[in-house]
What we know:
This protein is mainly alpha-helical. The chain has helices spanning 24-27, 62-69, 94-105, 132-135, 138-141, 182-204, 212-237, 239-248, 263-266, 334-337, 341-344, 355-365, 371-377, 385-388, 401-413, 420-435, 454-459, 461-468; strands at residues 48-49, 87-91, 261-262, 324-326.
Amino acid sequence: MEPHDHPPEQAGQLTLDAGNIASVEHLHCLSKARMRTPVDGAIAPTAYARLFPDLPPFTAEESFLHALGRAGGVCDCGDVDDDEGSLGSVAAGWPFFGQFVAHDITADRSAPQAHVDPTRLRNARSPQLNLECLYGDGPVGHPFLFQRNDPAKLLTGAGGADLLRNPEGTAIIGDPRNDSHVLMSQMHLAFVHAHNALVDRVRARGTPEAQVFETAARELRWDYQTVVLREFLPSLVGADVVEALLRDGRRFYRPAGAAFIPLEFADAAYRYGHSQIRHKYTLNTGTAPVPIFPDLLGFRPVTADRRVDWTKFFDADGHPPAQRAKKIDGRLVGALIALPVSLTGECEVEAFHSLAVRDLERGQGVGLPSGETIARHIGVEPLTDREVGAGSSGSPGQTPLWYYIVREADVRCGGNHLGPVGARIVGEVLIGLLDLDPTSVRHAPEGRTPNASLVQLLTGSAFAAAAER
């Protein structure tokens, strides 16, 4: 879903941006501060910046953006069932992991307003894959996230089946967006359990108590970063693209100073996951399939029938194949095209109930180049007007970057992963963030082996097996 709040909302890349949907009250999903801003305004390197600062912005009448993304428009795939033809090869859980990643590296906390200088946009997250959304400022800075009698361990709700929650049902966690829907909150909970299991493991190795938290957190961060490199990115951009980037280096994401999150990534490419959301999901063996909204809306306790069996979302040895994600094709399910008021708040413009319209408005609001312009710049043959398929909406001859990237995935890669433009942006940024972080797994001791794959982290199977030995 957002697969991102600043980006993907809200991911995933969902952020469904995986990467993300949440109520405006909590997350400001479409901050008006990101709309109708001067496209030539400088963006401080400590905030967001541009990957292609010299390319001209795409501009179009809002009527075109609304026609493209509104209910009944080109981006609306309606309420048909999830059939084989609409589904891709990727397991259904990956766009939600994309959203988890999005919440770890980006957060736009700007208050809604009609105009803002882009230099005022600030990323409330450090641009690092460091699980800041899980740990906050650690046991000293955010003690309310940790156990009183064992401050190396994170808290959960009673019995460990849900996140810790306040009396109103809102999760007490490092990032409220990870409570926006059940799949997100259950994934956050799984990472809590993985950290606590690693605490037990490093203690069993004789690690001095003063070093237990940092050692366990480092191990989990490295496992998480390894998942990004070895599992997530290959499934999202293609294994060949990942191998080429690791071998040949990055061409465009090469910050002169500190790492930053490019707007082309946050407000376009990493919102791919919105197109991967299915109509319905089977959470576990005891429940019937349900839509993401309103059935799985968060900010409330997770009941027993809504607990997630992660082998239904990721392929795991000894289990039937997981559900598959919808193809990345530029079409969103009805639940995302007609978001309820409980998510969007009251909208003066009816089209703003559509997540597709919100994605399109974000990109134009910060002056992103068209997809065709970037394709030519990086040496890729652009899609034709027919391949883009926006002519019936009154296309001006160029395509908003977000829509171009999801259409490129469909045309060039059968909807199974991102095409050349999208893969270049996402691959370079995520690998770049790891390269530029001296504490990341890219700089770990040679020969270091991960503790677990993602599905093992989420199910706890790797740690349970170790405990039995």
